[in-house]
Each structure stands twice: as C-alpha cells, then as structure tokens.
Write a structure and sequence with these properties.
- The chain has 2 helices and 3 strands; from the N terminus they run βββαα.
- The mean pLDDT is about 90.
- The protein is elongated and about 40 Å long.
- By secondary structure, the chain is of the alpha+beta class.
- The chain has a domain of about 35 residues.
- Strand 2 and strand 3 form a beta hairpin.
Amino acid sequence: MRYAIVIEPVNEPGFPPGYFYAHIPVLDLTTPGEGIEGAKAAAQDLTRLWVEEKRARGEQVPRETDRSARSARS
C-alpha cells in the first residue's frame, strides 16, 4: 500500500537542526527523521510495522484514496 506523506521541519527544543517530521495523515501517524530522506524512510518503516500489527490483530487497514491524497498534499 502507498500513503501520502507530509514533510515539515522539526522546530522543537531538543531536536538538532536538520530533522523533519513525516506525517501520514490517513493513518494519523507522525515520525521524525534526519533530513527529508531520513524522515521518508522513518515513515515507510513506521507504516509497514503499523500495517503488519493491524493485520495481525485482524483489524482493518485504511486505504489511501485519491481524495485524501490530494488533501494531504494541499
């Protein structure tokens, strides 16, 4: 499955410069990573683990829709 990711810089005390948040809006997940590529990689890892856990519990996994992907990019 593919999900839209929204990237934004981390501007919080305690984080060194160059860190970014990666938000996966349809799953309501957020993770930080070093640099944009690091944030994307962290989001992919988190999403994979989250989906695996949901499936293992027999829970539904939300699907990205064209509409939610467009609104996340806005």
